[in-house]
Design a protein that fits this description.
It is a single chain. The protein is α+β, with helices and mostly antiparallel strands. Helices cover 28% and strands 35% of the residues. Strands 1, 2, 3, 4, 5, 6, 7 and 8 form an eight-stranded antiparallel β-sheet that branches. A hairpin with a 2-residue loop joins β2 and β3. The relative contact order is 0.20.
Length: 204
Amino acid sequence: MYTPPAFRVDDPDWMFGFVEAHDFGLLVTAAPMMVSHLPFHLLRPEGEGRAVLLCHLARANPQWRAFVGEGAEALAVFRGPHAYVSSAWYGAQPAVPTWNYDAVQARGHVTLIEDSDAIGVQMRALAARYEPDPGFDMDAQPARYMEGMFKALVGVRIEVTEWTAKRKQSQNRPMADRIAVAAQLEARGEHAAAAALKDANGLG
């Protein structure tokens, strides 16, 4: 991801929080060239260790075959609020329109998880994060049914070796223009995009 200095973010805590808040991301592989839209579970690093991303694919999805063998890699992509920005909102001219957005990419080494018990643990953690209380109880389902479901999945474990984060939120514009863009986004009802711009620029 192209990250000019004005937009680059190097704060690990910000990146981790962003992924946790926008955890429905893209799993990207080069061979085969494929993209899957998936929920990810981030395990933050402990001590000197690396962060880990967990996700899963249907066994019928051929993308998991990209991870067979040693040295397999993948890219996970996460995107947050974004919005079109008209240059008509700027006081400083001449100028052209652009697009504001937040994004994080994580590249890493992949290990497949094919053991049914391990996949069950992963699915329970995912359900615990999203299910309402009371909600779906995995342990209340017939064991044979759940075993069949787990066998139809392949878990993916990504040990992240490289993070890239970008906040393209008008930081390269004069402060008056940043304030004007935030106001215009609010007026258009794009509150999440306005909030991201304000946060990136310390506008409260």
